[in-house]
Amino acid sequence: MAPRIVEVRQNVLKKNDILARELRERFRQAGVYVVSLVSSPGAGKTTLLRDTLARLRDRFRVAALVGDLATDNDGRRLGETGVPVRQITTGTVCHLEAEMVGRALEGWDLSALDFLFIENVGNLVCPASYDLGENLRVVLFSVTEGEDKPLKYPTIVLGADLAVVTKIDLAEAAGFDREAFYAALGRVRPDLPVLEVSARTGTGMSAWLSWMEEQARAARAAVAGAPGGRERRGC
Ligand SMILES: Nc1nc2c(ncn2[C@@H]2O[C@H](COP(=O)(O)OP(=O)(O)OP(=O)(O)O)[C@@H](O)[C@H]2O)c(=O)[nH]1
Ligand SMILES: [Mg+2]
Predict the structure, then answer these.
(1) Is any ligand 1 atom within 6 A of the Cβ of residue 41?
(2) In the predicted model, is pLDDT for residue 233 greater than 50?
């Protein structure tokens, strides 16, 4: 890459980091727990998120932002759950940036939310470089996309807090080699928690929700216990 291009890219990333830090502080002050989902196109982000919103909406105040290059299909699908959803249409940009998230949140009272979910644009490369100020970043790999994906896209794995293997109902039909997948993931991030789910059959959904709720509880307890921290509603 030419030095000039490298410099511009570094400036963009630096600006994003500053905005993401501001967002993170805003989320912390509002007491909203933010979870982002990243994966290759079609791995099942919207489907998992739709079922997640439907299962959480009676117990928590939830909302979602969803990024896509060209359509509002996912926003409409998620909106069917009845929870507040905003679509971010990125045009030619292959990832969400902190600035886009900040703009999409304009006018939203974040303190009226317990959980905010962000579905990134389907892409295992570009989103890795852009912090969105989220508390948790979840990377999804479907059983149909090949066991070696964690090795081919290590940066996204290195920045994740959880890996979710999706479409587990198709594992047998797709000849998914579980051992090979876990070996590939382990070579990049041996410490990364992994959950297997099927939004189609509901397998693993309870484990996913419990895990995420526990992370949110722990984060809220840490904020409440920190010097200068304030009491928050538990969840
Ligand atoms: N069998 C099966 N199909 C699934 C599952 N989850 C999603 N799908 C299907 O996979 C396809 C893509 O799912 P989406 O949820 O749209 O995937 P996505 O990651 O949001 O896609 P993009 O936003 O385009 O990147 C759809 O046809 C879903 O019905 C699952 O658990 N099992
Ligand atoms: Mg989607």
Answers:
(1) yes
(2) no
